[in-house]
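Interim report, section 4.2 (structural modelling).
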Amino acid sequence: MGALRRKLARAGLSGLLVTHLPDVRYLCGFTGSSAALAVTRRSARMFTDGRYTTQAAAEVKAAQVEIVGRGPAISAVQWMAAQAGAETAGFDPARTTVAELTRLKEALPARLRRTFLTPVPAPLVETLRLVKDEDELRILREAALMGCRLFDHMLGFLRPGLMEVEVAAELEHQARLMGAEGMSFDTIVASGPRSALPHGRATAARLPRRGFLTLDFGIIHEGYCSDMTRTVYLGTAKPKERQAYEAVLAAQESAVAAVTAGVKCGEVDEAARAVLRDAGLADAFTHSTGHGVGLEIHEAPRVGAGQATRLQAGMVVTIEPGIYLEGEFGIRIEDMVAVTRHGGQVLTPSPKALIEL
Amino acid sequence: MGALRRKLARAGLSGLLVTHLPDVRYLCGFTGSSAALAVTRRSARMFTDGRYTTQAAAEVKAAQVEIVGRGPAISAVQWMAAQAGAETAGFDPARTTVAELTRLKEALPARLRRTFLTPVPAPLVETLRLVKDEDELRILREAALMGCRLFDHMLGFLRPGLMEVEVAAELEHQARLMGAEGMSFDTIVASGPRSALPHGRATAARLPRRGFLTLDFGIIHEGYCSDMTRTVYLGTAKPKERQAYEAVLAAQESAVAAVTAGVKCGEVDEAARAVLRDAGLADAFTHSTGHGVGLEIHEAPRVGAGQATRLQAGMVVTIEPGIYLEGEFGIRIEDMVAVTRHGGQVLTPSPKALIEL
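Predicted structure of the assembly:
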């Protein structure tokens, strides 16, 4: 909260309305599904509804709690407006809908309606969340290692003839038994020609006797997300398939090696893209190289072409180039990487050389 | 699309920007995670990115597909603005952020910037989605019955000493093996005093020898969500606990009996609330009676106090009163109910009399 208050003072705001739930959790620890947090220069108050009375009392730190009957955001704004000397409160225009802003303004006293709510130019809380502290890094490391243990378990489970959904079921079941709070996104299990779908959720398709299998999955541990992808081969890969795999792996390792504090995200993306371009696979790499990961599975920074944001020590990003050849196959390899002053630290050290099962 | 085009004509709009993904799926079948659909009075075009080339070609019906490098919503708005005679396009202010609206306006030619994008007064697509057609009802019925089979399976699995997360793991594993695409929300397993948390996700807590256990879960089947809750008792319930259970059950059955086309949602809520009031439990019922369910786990209508929306045949709502006594226990019973002209049809016919395990 201290760092946020300094940002408020610098921006000349009396307070800030925080409605994005991962931001609320980050600032005060509340994990419920309905809440708004009002942060002023002197105090902070979180508003939620009667379903969360007990949970809020147990979880919320560094803010008072008020249980309200109507929308928590309206209550938060009215509370800030009622503070002595309150003139303006920031809101995040990227997290506030046009309809919600109208409702919030209508709930204010007439004299404040036009001037009180001010869009903040950059998302103040998400900017704080970019750089993880030691405690967050510990949790992300644990989450990532749980992912590696899951992948290791799956290597002993995979065999031709299984349905993709059976693979997802086994993976998610093991994740729960390991203590995961849940999955951080729909598990991707894409086999044979379906591996050419970058986001192929598990279906009733059966694993082939011969072909690629992409597993892209993540678990939630103490609220933080893991994310990793490995592509394995069922049977013995053909020379063209092995070549393609080696190209993706070289691209992935090149981007991992480019990660260090001070480097632009676009340069990391280019490190992967250049390798695939040289291999004649530029057109088959149809997405960005990676993204930040933390309380949300996708958060800033974006590691994409031309991105000027510079990596800072404490950021955690994914590095996940892939190629997709429609009707043939696809390959993606993804690690979570923590940025340090002396390079990138891979948090998902599962093997990456081609595994033939 | 026909019904939507009639709404567009009635509202005097040249077109509509659809960015909420369940709305996109509803209108054209696309299930990817990045898309915008532009619907004009004569045609429709869906914009997505290169990750979804193959998937969009396979899934999208009733719209052309265009793969774009930049934001799909910007492309959709620019495409509509370039149509001959295009003057205005509606957008849903409840699904468009303040920041996104600014970006969309900036992407328009100067002469259209002020006038082209118009907030629609009511969410046009969500209004269409309120009433389910025969095909949707079939899918929701199947999804609900999968939920009932899961509950039946769990009755044979539950025993004191299991961790709540083990219960969630078993339930989710079975769901996958049954062919569920995923869970429609984080599975709630709340045992003993934790049952007093209305939204108690599964933790490492162990099921007690004696006490309530609330299971609230849903699966996704062909894109549609199921949702049901049962509260069972481990051991033999004390008289006070049994009385409380009977009160919640009476409230739930009273609300189910109130469901029929033409009735106001607030009247259904009151049917449950009145029973709990008579039992002296009004303050312990801290949430609404239910909500619509379909492509999203929470959608319109809201079945809450004072809601004036009238139920129509083809709507599907949950009926889920509950009571929460902090430090003691909680009880919730939830069914999915399809509205017909002749009353409500319960889609989740699992037993509701108190089960003691």
